[in-house]
Design brief:
By secondary structure, this protein is an alpha/beta fold. It folds into three domains: 180 residues, P-loop containing nucleotide triphosphate hydrolases (Rossmann fold, 3-Layer(aba) Sandwich); 160 residues, P-loop containing nucleotide triphosphate hydrolases (Rossmann fold, 3-Layer(aba) Sandwich), CATH 3.40.50.300; 70 residues, no CATH class. It is built from 18 helices and 22 strands. A six-stranded mixed beta sheet has the order 6-7-8-3-9-10, sandwiched between helices.
């Protein structure tokens, strides 16, 4: 931003009251908040207001500053400048516990549950119910958890270990945990990124109940359809600055995108013109006992094969079997017409496979390492010789990949955990492209990525396919599957229900197959 533009914006800021005169109008007010990290201005003089009994959707591209502001509100980060008011009173949250005790709870985008503890233990961790002997009263915790889950209509056993739950079920436990604090302000950061459509409807009914109780909800999402379903107001951030706020009913998708990215995205899905080549991968009667059975398909050079299906359909398991994480029980895999046996990921990489996993925190990132260390680890052995690493060549490769994928980072030495979710995802994609794969398997490649970054990822996938790479793309977002795929393979409870050509694939047909019905 130019010096004159900055001065004009600050002059406008100083001419306006920082807080409302009527403290009852807003639950939470943020004014003039700024936050800097080494080499990065994450927030520059931003504001926000949350009304009681309303949903404020917070929208912006990855790196816009949304999560940073939420972490400041939740006491995880401390602002460099600015002020927070809760119920009209100035507050300072030195720790997340202080924010919780003041009535602010946050559901993080990356799940933070303890897998070796039960649901009840996770929900009440740090505030366990005690008996007269000051010992943990497990019976009381079980009863309180059962009542909470019943109130939220979540059908889970309080004693079930979290490690046994699906990602979607863990997300519902995170929601229950946040609600258990009976907070006045509830922050939801991408709460629907890993749950099914029916569970999304369930979440929206919970949100409606919370609104009726006078709670204020800050809702961060990259799914614009959700904004127009549940939001009362929409606040837009861009590049660490506050762009503006509007009533949701006064906006449409185009105006929202324009405010978010500062430009119009005339075509989200790129045109595909190059012809598809010969069969590269052939799978026959692939079976993983108890998970999926008799799955057969072909994948051509230059083709994008979409795999759709509901949670638990076996989509991810097929990807993991092809990559050797869960070797098949039976069936055959042919690469360029030759039979191959893949029993571990190292073999898969050696044969030209690459897999971007669906959960970057759990199975992708090494959060304590730098961007470069995360990117280079799969190809590190290729640059080793005589006991030394060819650091100069390796750095040049990483820098080149960061430029191609437009990874926003102050330097390659930056801890990857400090990057936005979208930039983390790009860095992981760069990791696999550095192996020069022939078959690229993408499991939920745009989860937690904003619309602008999605367009970049789609462009890159299309470019790779145009260069002859064979791509398998698994996604829960039907518009993404339909917009990017040359063919769509649909799974239901471990069974391949059918494969649709691009010209015949529709949302209705895909959902029909995904529900276990035939399409005639």
């Amino acid at each position: 931003m130019s010096d004159s533009a900055t001065a004009a914006r600050h002059a406008l800021r100083d001419s306006q009251p920082a807080f409302s005169a009527d403290s009852s109008e807003y639950l939470l007010e943020i004014a003039h908040i700024s936050k800097r990290f080494p080499g990065v201005v994450a927030l520059d003089d931003v504001q926000l207001r949350v009304r009681p009994g309303s949903v404020l959707a917070l929208m912006g591209e990855n790196g816009a500053g949304k999560s940073t502001l939420m972490k400041i509100i939740a006491g995880i980060y401390q602002p460099d400048e600015g002020e927070i008011r809760l119920h009209g009173r100035p507050v300072v949250f030195a720790t997340p516990l202080a924010a919780l005790q003041s009535g602010i709870a946050m559901i993080h985008q990356e799940l933070n549950l303890m897998p070796f503890m039960s649901i009840a233990e996770n929900i009440w961790i740090g505030r366990e119910q005690l008996n007269g002997l000051h010992m943990v009263d497990h019976g009381k915790m079980h009863r309180c958890t059962a009542e909470l889950l019943e109130r939220l209509r979540i059908r889970l056993d309080p004693e079930e270990l979290v490690g046994n739950l699906s990602i979607a079920e863990r997300q519902m436990v995170e929601i229950a945990k946040a609600v258990s604090y009976d907070s006045d302000v509830l922050i939801m950061d991408e709460p629907t990124s890993a749950i099914t459509e029916s569970e999304v409807e369930h979440l929206f009914s919970i949100i409606a109940d919370l609104k009726a109780q006078g709670k204020g909800i800050i809702y961060i999402t990259h799914k614009m359809s959700e904004v127009f379903q549940i939001a009362d107001e929409v606040a837009i951030f861009r590049d660490g600055t506050y762009v503006g706020l509007q009533r949701a009913e006064q906006m449409d998708g185009d105006s929202l995108i324009s405010m978010m990215v500062g430009r119009e995205l005339t075509q989200l899905f790129p045109e595909r013109e190059k012809p598809i080549g010969e069969v590269m991968l052939s799978v026959r009667n692939l079976t993983l006992d108890g998970i999926f059975k008799d799955v057969s398909f072909e994948l051509h050079a230059g083709e994008i094969l979409g795999i759709a299906g509901l949670m638990g359909s076996g989509r991810t398991n097929i990807a993991e079997t092809l990559f050797g994480i869960s070797p098949s029980s039976s069936g055959e895999i042919f690469l360029d017409g030759q039979p191959v046996r893949i029993s571990d990921p190292q073999q898969a990489i050696g044969k030209g496979f690459a897999l971007l996993t669906e959960d970057r925190k759990l199975t992708g990132l090494f959060p304590c390492l730098s961007v470069m260390e995360n990117m280079e680890m799969v190809v590190l052995s290729n640059y080793a010789g005589g006991g030394f690493i060819q650091q100069k060549a390796l750095r040049a490769l990483c820098e080149d990949m960061c430029k191609k994928l437009r990874v926003k980072t102050p330097s390659l030495e930056q801890c990857i955990d400090t990057l936005s979710g979208g930039n983390q995802q790009k860095a992981l994609l760069a990791r696999w492209l550095m192996t020069n794969p022939r078959i690229l398997i993408l499991d939920e490649p745009t989860r937690g990525i904003d619309v602008g970054a999605k367009a970049e990822i789609y462009r890159l996938i299309s470019l790779l396919a145009g260069e002859g790479m064979a791509v398998i793309m698994i996604s829960s977002e039907l518009p993404e599957v339909l917009g990017m795929s040359d063919r769509v393979m649909v799974m239901h409870e471990g069974e391949l229900m059918g494969t649709l050509a691009r010209s015949e694939a529709t949302q209705e047909k895909v959902m029909h197959l995904a529900s276990g019905h035939s399409v005639h």
